[in-house]
Design brief:
Elements: H1 4-16, E1 20-25, H2 32-36, H3 57-60, H4 65-72, E2 76-80, H5 93-111, E3 118-120, H6 129-141, E4 147-149, H7 165-174, E5 178-181, H8 198-221, H9 224-227, E6 233-236, H10 243-256, H11 269-276, E7 277-281, H12 285-290, E8 299-301, H13 315-323, H14 328-343
Parallel strand pairs: 1-2, 2-3, 4-5, 5-6, 6-7, 7-8
Helix pairs in contact: 1-13, 5-6, 6-7
């Protein structure tokens, strides 16, 4: 339980210092792709809808964004797509590349309304890696700060192979972290109404957690993290409470079976995770309390605005509840400094909560 002094510390930080959400979203116009996609590529465009998007004005209209950020006491946001998450399951490479380019142009235009407070993460199609590198370079020139790829690739393009090597090399050289967001790629989310009854709850927790664990496992155990030591990965919206248990178990079994089941890397899995992996979270009370002894350099708070699951406009209360026990320096890392360091951002002036 937080002491009175700790509670006062967190309230002062929330009231006087910049807070940055590491995972927020825009909501694209529902007809964005239908208006711009060439007729020859429309056959692969899935029907998009805003179900669950919870259309707050600032999610759609960039000119209203900062006002709604101020209401939540948030001074800056790293932004992801909403509607285009479904497009990561498009199976035609040329179509997906065209769809992503349209979405990335829109993201850059949206962020231009407040470039000192809004930083976009562009989508990168990973079928053709040479084209992926070109799009990454283009988006870097437009001022965007990372690369969003599928969290669940198709089976024939698992992260364990060498298909992605040129992208890993380019992302490392450009200092563009690779971001893995829930519900992107070839999992249940690609199918309309893919879950009913209790399966909805299984997917919301069990399946999504399995997707995240598999992605991290493949990137560490296939040696990607060792081969590209300056490459950063970000788990987005997977929460954090599960991570120290899973990583510690991987360490345990790597050590236990070191002779019989050798792995293609030198250090323990925890070494690579601590050095190269980050994770966003926004409503994870157990994870928040684990931060007192694990993950203060890897974890980044977010509010998931404007989605229905967001902590907006009560983020300050959630932060105080889940993170109020932390020392001020640790709290600053999680609320601002980790995301600033990771994406090389300039800390924005604080927005006073309204």
């Amino acid at each position: 339980m937080a002491t009175i002094t700790q509670a006062n510390n967190v309230r002062e930080i929330l009231a006087t210092e910049a807070i940055i959400s590491s995972d927020s979203h825009i909501i694209e116009p529902i007809d964005l792709w239908d208006r711009q996609v060439p007729a020859s590529l429309k056959d692969h465009l899935p029907k998009l809808n805003r179900a669950g998007a919870d259309d707050k004005p600032g999610g759609i209209d960039a000119t209203q964004r900062v006002q709604e950020m101020a209401r939540d006491g948030v001074s800056g946001e790293v932004l992801y797509t909403t509607l285009a998450l479904r497009l990561f399951a498009v199976e035609d490479p040329a179509s997906q590349e065209a769809y992503f380019r349209i979405g990335n142009d829109y993201m850059a235009e949206y962020c231009a309304a407040a470039p000192d407070r809004l930083w976009g993460i562009p989508m990168v199609s990973c079928y053709n890696i040479k084209n992926a590198v070109k799009e990454l370079e283009r988006c870097k020139k437009m001022g965007m700060v990372g690369a969003l790829i599928w969290q669940v690739p198709p089976e024939h393009l698992r992260f364990t192979g060498n298909h992605y090597d040129e992208l890993w090399e380019a992302a490392e050289a450009l200092d563009m972290p690779v971001n893995l967001h829930i519900l992107s790629g070839f999992n249940y989310s690609r199918l309309p109404a893919s879950s009913v009854g209790i399966e909805t709850h299984r997917n919301s927790v069990n399946t999504k957690l399995h997707d995240a664990m598999t992605a991290v496992f493949d990137l560490i155990f296939s040696g990607v993290a060792e081969r590209y030591p300056r490459l950063k990965f970000v788990l987005v919206e997977n929460e954090i409470g599960w991570i120290p248990f899973v990583i510690s178990q991987w360490d345990r079994y790597v050590q236990r079976f070191a002779q019989r089941r050798p792995v293609p890397f030198k250090e323990l899995p925890s070494f690579y995770f601590n050095r190269q992996f980050y994770s966003t979270f926004f409503n994870d009370p157990p994870g928040g309390h684990l931060l007192s002894f694990w993950g203060e350099g890897n974890c980044m708070w977010s509010n998931d605005y404007p989605h229905g699951n967001s902590t907006w406009p009560g983020s300050r209360q959630v932060i105080e509840r889940d993170l109020g026990h932390l020392a001020p320096d640790s709290l600053r890392k999680i609320l601002r400094e980790n995301v600033v360091d990771l994406y090389h951002l300039k800390t924005p002036a604080p927005l006073a909560a309204v």
